[in-house]
């Protein structure tokens, strides 16, 4: 038996809008879409993919974490070759840069629905 990662799914109140953000950010292709579900994949590859599932009551996590608040369970790490340029581009697409930045060669941002993600340079 073989087990492989088929994808990663983000809960969101608007799967289409969040998928459009990540499609523009990553340059990935849309594999499937309906009102409650969208899946993206790298060009020429369906898996692993990035999915967006309808969660009408989605609550974004707090960053940095604090006891008694919604905790971040996972986040995406996206490797880039130009940290400043890609941070600016992500923000132009609708991301927000977090005030707290724990590392020099990493940028913590939030997507338009509040999911934290990191941009990082090779070797970081």
Written account of the structure:
With 124 residues, the chain is α/β, with parallel strands linked by helices. It folds into 2 domains: 1-58, 2,3-Dihydroxybiphenyl 1,2-Dioxygenase, domain 1 (Roll), CATH 3.10.180.10; 60-124, 2,3-Dihydroxybiphenyl 1,2-Dioxygenase, domain 1 (Roll). It has 2 helices and 8 strands. The strands form 2 sheets. The chain has a 4-stranded mixed sheet, with helices on one face. It has a 4-stranded mixed sheet with strand order 5-8-7-6, with helices on one face. A hairpin with a 5-residue loop joins strand 7 (106-110) and strand 8.
CATH topology of the largest domain: 2,3-Dihydroxybiphenyl 1,2-Dioxygenase, domain 1
Shape: globular
Number of helices in the DSSP assignment: 2
Radius of gyration: 15 Å
CATH superfamily of the largest domain: 2,3-Dihydroxybiphenyl 1,2-Dioxygenase, domain 1
The residue fraction in helices comes out at 10-25%
Structural class: alpha/beta
Number of domains: 2
- Our measurement of the CA-to-CA distance between the termini, rounded to an integer number of angstroms, reads 34 Å
Q: Under the CATH scheme, which class of the largest domain?
A: Alpha Beta
Main beta-sheet annotation: 4 strands, mixed
Protein name: VOC family protein
Organism: Streptomyces citrinus
Q: Could you provide a short overview of the structure?
A:
With 124 residues, the protein is an alpha/beta fold. The protein contains two helices and eight strands; from the N terminus they run βαββββαβββ.
